User: Fold this.
Amino acid sequence: MTDNPFMTMKNIDKSFNGVPVLRNVSLKVEKGEIHALLGENGAGKSTLMNILGGVHLPDNGSVYIDGEQVRMLNPRISQEQGVSFIHQELNVVADLKVYENMFLGSELRNKAGFLKVEEMCRETHDVMATLGVDINPKEYVRNLDTSYKQLIEIAKALLRKSRLIIMDEPTTSLAEHEVNRLFELMRSLKQSGVSIIYISHKLKEIKAVCDSYTVLRDGELVGTGSMEKENPETITKLMVGKAISQERYVHDNPFGPVIMEVKNLTSEGLFNDINFTLKKGEILGFTGLAGDGRTELFESLFGYRKKYSGEVRINGELVKIDHPRKALKAGVGFVPKNRKENAIIKDLSVIHNMSLSSMGNFESSGFLRDNLEKERFQYYKDALNIKVHDPQITIDKLSGGNQQKVVIAKWLEANTEILIFDNPTQGIDVGAKQEIYQEIVTLSEQGKAVIVLSSEAPEIIKICHSINVMYQGEITARFDGKSANEEEIMQYATGSKREAEKIG
Amino acid sequence: MANIDAKEYSTKPSTTKSRLSWLWSEYSVIIAFIVIFIASAILNPRFMDLNNQLNILMQVSIIGIIAMGMTVVMLSGGIDLSVGSVLALAGVISVLALNASGSILVGIFTALLVGSFAGFLNGLMVAKGRIASFIATLGMMAGARSIALYIADGGSVSGEVAGFTAISNSDLWIFDVPVIIFLAMTAAVFVIMHKTRFGRYVYALGSNEKAALLSAIRVDRIKIGVYTLIGSLVGIAAVIETSRLNSISSSSSGAQYELDAIAAVIIGGTRMTGGRGKIIGTLFGVLILGILNNMMNLMNVSPYLQGFVKGLIIIIAVVFQKRE
Ligand SMILES: Nc1ncnc2c1ncn2[C@@H]1O[C@H](COP(=O)(O)OP(=O)(O)OP(=O)(O)O)[C@@H](O)[C@H]1O
Ligand SMILES: [Mg+2]
Assistant:
């Protein structure tokens, strides 16, 4: 490493309410390098970046850019120093159009002060094109898929002339080809001298694109170095302090009777003629690329979307689910993707988020019992390794991965016979992922029926008995989990192959 | 994963500065209340007089009861502008029912029924009609007032049943009955909001409606419940208002009550967009408004200027909340 790195953070300390979160952490990033920032959920990665981005002030320590000390008192100062920040949680405004989001706070105006709408649209279109995305700049963000929202966040940072881009888990809802585009772009940014700090729990990505790394554990620096000498196993070890098995989790547990049967489910423009059956004890996977309609399909089955036709039977009985409450009553639970929008009640405490879908479990004679909630939370805290000092604080103070675990706990607590997980490991670290997988497999061994949606084929292969691949709203292939492989799944997911006889 | 023992670090702030800011953010209304209370005691010796203190409580009881309902509505992310008009309407109809039946119970029951039915309609418009609460309750505000005026032919109606005035004009020990009703309603709403699932759902809904729906909460029913709750509290307030002078004016009773109630809620620290706020905060917000009114009377501030002072206080309260 050179002696004058582009950005240095020195001896950073930070506590929240007396709880130390960062202790004496230092970080160096060279000009034109992609630097991985690694660590378990709650290790302090986002907090460190929030300090660099001017969102939080450090208790101690200093930040240098180009050798000069800068006091990052607020996000504006940080931006003026050429630092762009892609936050872990999506911050797009759903009620604005794509281009309005892109230029929020820095709108282009002509001399008379009027907005230059066409120019903003054109620039939006151009940046999006470099990411390989073709969306109408005048579309309302509300109508877009989560992966597009994430791409808008990324594009927003690219629009500014940045010298350093912080990417805090930018790929959690992206499909593989979108990730690859992003990587190409990152490499060309690197060529032009831009530095990037890259946070991710996906080791393959880190190995593919990063030049060097820094690892945090429990708020302390545990290692830093060049990526060349490392491989996924050694990085995992650095992060969680142990090796992680790569084997399939799921075993051939015997299935029970059919619990859910779906016939000819169709919703105009979203999905078409979907058929499948789900047995007790079975883990069924659904995968595909953005726009495959799998999320919409299961949002419909959960009653969040009402406009669909077709038959759904649960335990042999025809049901019409048009409200999530009815789904819950029928024994269907749903862990949605994009927790910030769909799952987190940020003004409620961690405990109250956990109990929200199963209040009946905590009532006696009509009144809530605090201590029952507390006890139950303690159970999930241990089972899922949720890192929180005081579960009475509001959930938005938790690290992203730990928030996700609370959302999962909420639906485990609802204890439904059928549980649908949409992108369940969003933002969860490698170690904790295994715990979630284990939890899912245990559910199935207890005779629960599980559906897992994920854009990551390896994840689906690891935990599913059988796998459905979707392409543009249709099921195009079905694999046995044991014999499935990634390449084949991708061929069906991208639409380049279709099974001859009509499935789905 | 090294689990850090929760007991090792206290969650209470460590440094004096952060402790102060923590205290302020949690209890700013109570601190403001204490400051205003002490200042009032110093400025005017008559303020501390027990009768004056009890008088303040009596003065705020009607607005206080309405403000409790308003807190729930605002926590759910809505607002109710119709409370004053609905109070007049419930008052007018209940007096008619009282006189026709000769039964005080029928009168009270009618007020509750009219209030909660108006609230229920507000709830239907907001939840099922997807009309913004501001617009829906603005419509109800105009409509309820108009019906009250029509029924009473623009004037007042008076009770003709002996004993009806006793509701507002008798006391238990040293407290007037309206004060006791106010405190009881505060306690009831507190319990509803913190000890029942309804309350939990209201907070969830006000904070993130989509996530609440995806948590399998019947969001529509909760909204209807919220507006029905404030409606029935307005019905109770209408009984007190009517019983006080044994009459209710279809044109002026309840006028601008929505402003005072909303002011109390905001001073009490409830967030305008919902999801965050406390019943206790509103209680102190109501008391602050009561003390200010009382002090302005004691110090002979022109009644024309009193609105100005009140407006100023509301704006200061909001500015302080923004700093968090
Ligand atoms: N505003 C806050 N108030 C209190 N505690 C906080 C706050 N922000 C973060 N923390 C705590 O700081 C710790 C580090 O959180 P941080 O978000 O930096 O983790 P992370 O490394 O980004 O984890 P993840 O991979 O899950 O995103 C967590 O234990 C979290 O609970
Ligand atoms: Mg994070």
Summary: The interface with chain B takes residues 15, 17-20, 40, 217-218, 240, 302, 304, 323-325, 327-328, 334, 336, 341-348, 352, 356-357, 359-360, 363, 366-368, 385, 387, 389-390, 392-393, 410, 414, 431 of chain A (CB under 8 Å). Residues A 45-46, 88, 168, 399-400 surround magnesium ion (ligand 2) (CB under 6 Å).
